[in-house]
Design brief:
Distance between the termini: 61 Å
CATH class of the largest domain: Mainly Beta
Shape: elongated
InterPro entries: CBASS_pafABC_assoc_protein (IPR051534), WCX_dom (IPR057727), WYL_dom (IPR026881)
Structural class: alpha+beta
Strand order of the largest sheet: 7-6-5-4-8
Pfam family, one: WYL
Oligomer: single chain
Number of domains: 4
Number of strands: 12
Number of helices: 10
Strand content: 15-25%
Amino acid sequence: MSVNKNALIRYQVLDRCFRNTGRMYFWEDLLEECNKALMDFDPNSEGIQRRQLFDDIRFMESEAGWSIPLGRIRHGRKVYYRYEDLSFSISNQLLNDSEAEQIKSALQIFSRFSGTPQFEWVNEMIPMLESKFGLIERKSEIISFESNVDLKGLHYLTPLFNAIINERVLLVRYKDFKSSEPYEITFHPYYLKQYNNRWFAFGLNADNQVPNWNLALDRIESLSETAQKYKQSETDWEEYFFDLVGVTRPENANLQEIVLKFSPEVAPYVITKPIHPSQKHKNDLTGLEVKIKVIPNFELERLILSFGEQVQVISPQDFKERISQRLKSAGRLY
């Protein structure tokens, strides 16, 4: 199935409309949504006409497409379109042979860059995609990647990603661990980040005007698009996370130099897997001294505690005391 960029945009828009139970989409509405998305992607786009819209729908219903279970519901003299199975999405469907061949061709191109500076990510991506999509014929698995298939909220990853790409404002129903009841947030999504096998969405909480609000996907109960105007982010998110271990950035916190001393037993692991990109270390017979420049947060504390008796915090003093208190509290449990 050869799909160009404009067609893919239209299919994704139609898929989203067919899944939306909060609105009836007649063919005129579907056409408007498709053309709006095309204009957002390319301001010079002339859009599509009614005939192309119905060609797209027929293709999506065909075996060459995704065999979508599309219902046509009469409303007065008109008909609106909605999936008969509301859990269906083209994003959830397996690859067909044609799509698999296209990915194989793309991987062959990517493999040419393997080992090239600035393309180190290709070394990890190629085996992951080949294994994930079953592009290598083998009787048994030969590679696995750390993941948690039972983690709640993973199905929100695609709609959040699409909302960021298409600049859509979302109404999110959310229940954090401290709340007894769920609450709603008007959310402008900007960035998705995975840490410790959990996914997080960062964006503007329009209700309290916090520009770096953090939502854990496994705490989202529902989300839907709104018609509100999307506000652009002014944050460099790569820079935002560079000074952190994990995803939590405490308010008004400052960058600090953390000095740690690791035992000789774990020193090789810390050298080969640095705890932060800023890590500088010095090794001797007594162990490994590590210096990192980060904003201290809960995730850093948890990482240090995971080394148990194999690490000592040297400085700063307030951070050293905080780790000491947590270890004492843990010791009182035994």
